[in-house]
## 1
Amino acid sequence: MKKFIAFIIALSATPLSILSVNAEKVDYSLWDRFIKYDLRITDYDSLSEEEKDLCKFIFETERSSEDTIICERARRILAGYDVGERIDPEQVENYYNIIDRCEDYWLLTPYPNPYENGYESFREQYEFSKNRATLEAVPDIRHIDEDNCYNEYWTDDERTASIEIYNNSYYTFDEEPFIYKVYDGDTYEKYEIEKNLEFLPTMEYEGCTYQIYPDNTLALYSFNNNIVDSVDIPENIDGMAVTGIKMFAFDQCDIESIHLPETISYIEPFAFYNCEHLCDINFPEGLKSIGDSGFCDCSALGDINIDCPNLEFSKFPFYNCTAKNITVNTKKIPDSVIYSFTEYESLTIGDDVKEVGIYLLNTDTEIPESVKIVTWGEIYEESITVPEHIEILGAYTEPSGNKFLSVSIGGEPKIPLIDNPSMTELHHSIIKGYYNTEAHKYAITNNEQFQALDNLKYGDANNDGNINIADAVSLQKYLFGNGTVGYEADLNKDGTIDSFDMIPMRKTILNPQ
């Protein structure tokens, strides 16, 4: 094993301001909104003490930071994802890069466009790094500002040491060593860990080339047999598990059917690029990530069934794809996943889905009661219909730093917790829903029009089964703050009981139907 090459530069500066929380910098009035719309928690009291500590850590750490950061690992733990083991500095010595396969690289980096500079140059840009070993890990802290853009991978919960990666791209092309810091109070010693620049060894098996990783797992590097129209990838070869599909592994193949083993946990970007004859493929339950454009231009896909509890989608995993019938059962279905498909006949949402994008509400797709959260998005339609069981409408999207292509060139960071506008702000869309639900509260809070879907006897303000002058008296008393009425008094069905309901009340009493 290579040895650490030590700078041994002891610095007197605070390791990172994010851990020296200054309570005066944190606006605790944002706490309730943060818990609900940012962390997507509707029953805070039901959390364990450990989970409550994570909530506090995320809030105070992110809000007190001088730059734009995301407590990535803690957030995923709260969301119920498998974050895996922490990195070991000794293990890192065997790898060329450290990546988080679930991170949305399309947004974080100027991603190469294969149509812009020519397909071959795009391929060549990635070939040399594709041959080297990358270590999959979840960062503890993501710094997402352009001038301070790096990931921190802690070696333990206390951050006694960390490794910093100053490039968030899927493949990094520099040969700079890893930065390894060991902390001692307010100081740290800084070391370097040389990257392993050697190409991974490969092996051939049944018409495919596999890379052998340092942890004795295999990744399918390339499919070399264009004679057959189907392939069944094995779970293991010579005792080594096949865990991944590499970038361009099935690039422009004529393959029609592929069976992936249950050991597959990741599919890299463009892995099945332009497989225009691929019509049948399965998605193993243990799959955790599908890279950007993993199935780009797959124009013959038939039925798709994705039942993967730990899968986190990239932005456009099925870019420009067609499919007939789609079934998705993951924790979250972002709008971008559905946008990826050029057309489809049906979409079925599984019973384990907890969150969907706003786009799905105005489609023919049935939203099951398991779905409690709708992600924020601009509503361009005249109206949006919100199911009664939705508990969070407009859950915040991820913060954006002042990074190129993240917001705008030279743009200021956007923190949804303090900068998030109403979803209906652009077109003042009507919110259709039920009284005393999240849809009702959202419309009232954002001063937008609400259209009630409840089957009520409008006009029966005192809820005695009859509509008469007594209901007008009850409404008048309510307006003067001297009584209570039911939602039956909202005669104009705008979600608010006010003086504007007196006119239709009068008409209802004078002209009973």
Note: The longest strand covers residues 5-11.
## 2
Amino acid sequence: MYKLILVDDEEEVRKGILKKIQWEQYGFQLIGEAENGREALEIAEKVTPDVVITDIKMPFMDGLQLSEVLKKRFPNIKIIILTGFDEFEYAHRAVNLNVIEYALKPVSSKDLIEILLKAKTQIDEELSKKADMDDLKEHYVKSLPILKEKFFTSLITSKMPKEEIQEKSINYNVCLDGKAFVVAVISMDQGDIYYSKKTEYAKTLELIKFAVFNIATEILSKYNMDNVFMYNDQVILISNYSEEDRIAISNKILPILEEIRQNIKRCLMLTVTIGLGTIFSDVSLISDSYENAMSALDYRLIIGNDRTIWIEDIEPSSKDKIVFDEIMEHDLSSAIKVGTEEEINDILDKMFDKLLAVKVPFKDYQIYLLEMLTTILKVAKNSNVDLVNVFGENYNLFVELYEFNDLNRVRKWFKDISLRIWTYIIADRQDTCKLLVQKAEDYISRYYSDSEITINKLCNYLHISPTYFSFIFKRETEMTFVNYLTQIRMDMSKELLRTTNMKSSAIAKYVGYSEPNYFSYCFKKYFGVSPSEYRNSL
């Protein structure tokens, strides 16, 4: 039952309304009557009604004043205004005060029941939506640990754009702020798990994994390090720091990892080896740090188990890496295919700035540049660019690339070849569009007299989609297909009216209108006069 208050300063009116309706039959419980707005407000403060039926004119506080206060204090209450004929327009001009209906007094029981049922439907829907939202929130809270773990897994197994990482970090309450990021992998030494007779934990592999994870989590929580999860039977830690100094960071993280390793050995009587990856200043390179941490674990074969191995101790050159990844390939390809000259220059500047910011072996520079050049040539091939036409018969871009010894000159060269390919693609696309529009115009000129001609028929003939055709046709002709067809038909009908004695109905059929009356309507709308008026004016 939804709670309801009836407010009217005339007792006779109130009693009349009360007798008219069997409230409970329609899902309402009358919990109070009031003679004015103040009295109604006191009742509402005590019982919080779902619906208030109120007159407008009342002493002390009228119906609109009451509605305004109720809206502020109880925004979900539905209000039904009862008003006399002379107050009706005034009531409708009032601002939105949660009023769902205005009823003229005296209101019939039938009208009031309809209004009440409308209010009940609204409240039912709102409560249903709220319940659905509450269920969704509860499900989200329960699913959050799983979502966080999936997010962490995505960070170490794939390249994610910074914007996506930041957005998901906020959604999943994960802290990834900072200037430096590094991944550690805690891996159980399998020999201890399967062959140790010293510990009861060896009975169950799952229990051992849980115990390792639990010890690591407890120790890391002391240092406010929460980005820890399981992946492929290993414990993964993603650490972030507000500083960029590698030595300072390693001096912080290595003792913590050693504490974890020693506690696992002491408590579980088994050993683990921990691999620590490269420290990166870009959050989107967390997956690279993970790969390097896994590479560090590979050195167990050489230097043994039961230790923490930092990849930068074993492979000093790995601290600076330059990788032309899928995101870069996509951005460069997209800029050349559908971007602007400014976008092409910007993306190439970012790539070369990244190249200049690191110190890597010369072969790494060459691989990076070769991958960039390969991407550009793939775009040209997929766009049917005639490279001989663009660069000349004796072009060999790979040979030219190896002749440079200055990265800034290479940057200028990359911009030049990218813009030349881009210019060719743009020109070819424009020529193709013009040819399509010309074919469309020829088709319309031949078949405008067919009353069944449609844009879909035309697009089937041209072998393109209606959406794309509409875009290029309007861009080239500054007219829609329908407007262009109408212009052709109107111009031809005007010519026939001027040069022949054909009847208007015959002309209508000739230019593609199956209904003469509709032809006359279109003709007058287009030229401002009817076909007969036009012919008579000649």
Note: The domain at 2-127 is CATH 3.40.50.2300 (Rossmann fold).
## 3
Amino acid sequence: MAKKSFMYGALILSAAGIVSKILGALFRIPLGNLIGAEGMGYYQAVYPVYTLLLTVSIAGFPVAVSRMVSERVAFKDYYGAHRVFHVSVAVMTVLGAALFVILYAGADDIVGYVATLGEAVYAMKAIAPALFFVTVMSAYMGYFQGMRNMKPSAAVQVVEQLFRVIVGLLLAFLFVGAGREYAAAGAMFGATAGAAAGFILILFIYFAAVRQEAFKARIAESRRAFRGKRQPVSHILRLLFTISVPITIGSAIMPIMSNIDLAIVANRLSDTGWGPEEVRAMYGQLTGMASPLINLPQVVTQAIAISLVPTVTAAFQKKDMPFLRHNTVLSVRATVLLGLPCSFGLMTLSEPIMRLLYPAQPQDAVAAAPSLFILASGIVFFMSIQTLTGVLQGVERQVTPVLNLFAGAVCKAVVTYVLTGMPAVNIKGAALGTVCAYVVATVLNLRAVRKRTGTVFDWKKTVLRPLLSAFVMSGVAFAVFHLLRTVAGNAPSTLGAIVAGGIAYVVMIFVTHSVTEEELALFPKGETLVKMYRKVLTTVLKNGRM
């Protein structure tokens, strides 16, 4: 069962992440129609500040709690794990309260300095309480993740988003008559309502768990067994901050670089003769139309990384290196298997997909397609960064991925500066710079993982076979799209090509043995997947002989 925990947890979190993304998309569309561009301006003006403070509060702490809890659980020190949890709750309560006060009390000054939209102050005050709930809640989620129980995190994620959508849209509807700024604040309060709902749910799950007699007995037994070996609170605090601070800094690197990137791109494009309107249009095509599609697959790899940290940590602490390497190989292979079809699919159908998503802006959609093509080539690297970072965090190398990502960010700045200054390349230079950052960080992370864990990858199984499957998938998708386009429009042709390509990829990973029966058996309903695997192989081989 231990070897199944990583895959089960990743699948549970992936499913929750996908549902949350869908709910988020369902929220934005009616909200935009309800409060209009002006209201969305107030709404969006608040998010950069809120996101920055949220990154400071929760980027590193859940990982730190998860790792420290997992280290103790590996040796059945459940009481020690519970002490880590209690200390982390106290820290996160103080931090969450402080951030809430900063954002709420300083809303007028922050809005005036950052957003220059005075009326956005209502939206900022409306979302400020969410900082407290989300920050404290992250300690509970880190505790359950350290116990290798991903269900509470998944449930909270969905409930939080569900309440955000319902309450946010309802309040926006009720307040829109009073003014767009109040409607935006109502929509923003949806995030606070969602955070409060998630907080209440995680408290309910936690207290339900600690009331169980088995839980009480386990804590009492470990308290007796480890008596005299207790670490002082000061030591626990030092470990929490030692682990979390580098992760927090790493999480802030790319957002900071994105802001620097804006200045570089705008200035370089202007220097080569592009006018202000053209610069804004090109940057919008890159960041507003193409980039969001690249971020979607990270839902899965975030789930893999979160589920991987406690599994790798436990194996590392127990010096069970074969199991650690097994999970490392499995996680990288899963990342490549999921990342390659995303990369090749978006590259093959970059223009049709853009036209499908933005039918009302056909010229911008076509113009954004080359940037999407370039960014898509980096998806598998972007996803690999997250997975390999999870491994490094689990083996006490949390600083390493930060330094590697910084090296990638520097590469991004240099490449972007040089290429966007070339008129023929223009905004595509920024996309190429981003891909270079991903490649550099991935290569450095991979080298660090191999050095630290001694993991040896079978590149034929890990890369070459999935790569062949992705090429076949692309060929099928390309052929189906052009075949259907002769009798149908862009939308049905694109959707048909996506479905056909997806089927072709699944068949090919079975045919090429990119996935083994043993690995399929690790998934939920593994026996059913193994039967399907054998059926596909039998059918293909039978048709091949015919």
Note: Residues 2-58 form the longest helix (57 residues).
## 4
Amino acid sequence: MPRIKDEVIDEIRSRNDIVDVIGSVIKLKRKGANYFGLCPFHNEKTGSFCVSPQRQTYHCFGCDAGGNVISFVMEYENYSYPEALRYLAERAGIEIPEAEETPEEKREARFKGRVLECLKDAAIYYYKKLYSPEGRIGLEYFRNRGLTDGTIKSFGLGYSGKGRDQTVRYLKSKGYTDKEINAAGLCNISEKYGMTDRFFNRVMFPIMDINSKVIGFGARVMGSGEPKYLNSPEGVVFDKSRNMYGLNVARRSRSPYRIVCEGYMDVITMHQAGFTEATASLGTAFTSGHANLLRRYTDDIRLTYDSDAPGQKALMRAIPICRSAGLSTKVIHLDPYKDPDELIKAMGAEEFRKRVEAAENSFFFELSYIERSYDMSDPDGRTSFQNEAARKLASIDDELARDNYISGVAEKYFIREDALRRAVAIAIEKNERSGPSDFETRPHARINNDRAPSDRSHAADGQAAHPNEGIDMAERYLLTWMVDEKEVFEAAKNYLAPEDYTDGINREMAQKIYEGYEKGSISPADILTGFVANDNSNEASSVINTPLDAVETPDDRARALTDLVIKIKEAALNRDAGIDDGTDPLKKAKQIKHALTELKKIKISL
């Protein structure tokens, strides 16, 4: 994709208010000058996800996710950086002028194209191999699983062959280089055997992205080999968290919901039975990335995981992830069968459809699962379960929904509704008193709600208040403080240069802050844009969102700033002492000793 000019990126970001964008998909509540909500990137009961309209940034103080409006769209919608820019440009009515690709961008695009072509040719090779005499074992496996030739063709199923380098030799004959074959995840490379096939004697399940391009493979061994299941490694085109098996077809389904299951064969069997809305995660646990991907196509999810213990545990992990993403979720019961494939084969498609239509509300499923851990015939066990149910009800943020669920739970479990409401109220009060959203009243982990020096001054004592935080934290305190207040930057720059910060993201952040102020002013959202493009948004956001302690008086502010500057400069001088720059060691030692002595005399005023 052609590179978008920096000035256009700035306009896209500035014309998409971060509160509007995030507030359209996440429920936010105003607290002071900022907005809070449940973080969409990890499971939590109380909101530690902060959106700052002044800074035009977001930061989660629970999982450290953070960035600007561009990085949020990338993470939430599973978009690439260019895709996120295109989406936000369209939202703001901005036309993006085409820019010429750099030579490096052209090389990367060509290489990625070659890798995709290599994977496509491998899929064709495996499909043809399945119908050869050598592939009979694989074809019989699929037919014994009840698959028709039409279904096999539709999903591009195949067989890898029993030779150790058949696929590699075939792809090389097609003109693909070792580097391209390796990037496609189709080979293993060792000093002893050289380049050999990654997949051999396995039935093959091509994995396609939403545009039906082959990006990898899942494979099951024929016979007793290990591992039984083997997937492509992640690489230039394959990312398990941004793709789902069968979604290239399921996304086009006219069904108002999507069915999420565990295995490739479950998806294939359901599609063959007419349930083309089925999809599955790729050999990994269901993640927030999968939930956000599904949100593009529906807000109604039916989960149908294996009925054994591991499947039920995976189901309990998936439900809150869906809920955090704003997805309405129900659970399809399979008993006495293990999975959808087994149920459909035994009872037929019509019975499975009945199970889909009778899917249980996920909240009540969770309570049923929790209930198994208690002896409900014992008063103490029953009380413990009811208290846990109250805690779960307290975690429902929407008051109307919580009210309805309280009534439903009271009716289902024969609990006096007034008693349950009191228990829920107590649980809510405890959450509000001790939960991570209560940053404004906690002195050593408070969010700088107004981010304005005219309202309240704040700083961090890098030595007294945080003696064990180390140089990295001292740098982050100062970087955050400088972003908040130009006055602090003007005072600190007389003693510290960007080179005095620890090499890495702290120094890079310092460089951007210094450059911004030298030009006149800075915007946290602008600063983060460069980090977003390089996938460092979360870490960069964490650097300039370090919680600051409140320091009320000017003298205390000055002392805190002085302590931070001395600590950072002292560490920089000590680092310099260990670097061989050609200076006479004795002379250098004297110079650094003198500099450290003078450093102790610093007294900064604000």
Note: Residues 139 and 314 are 31 Å apart (CA to CA).
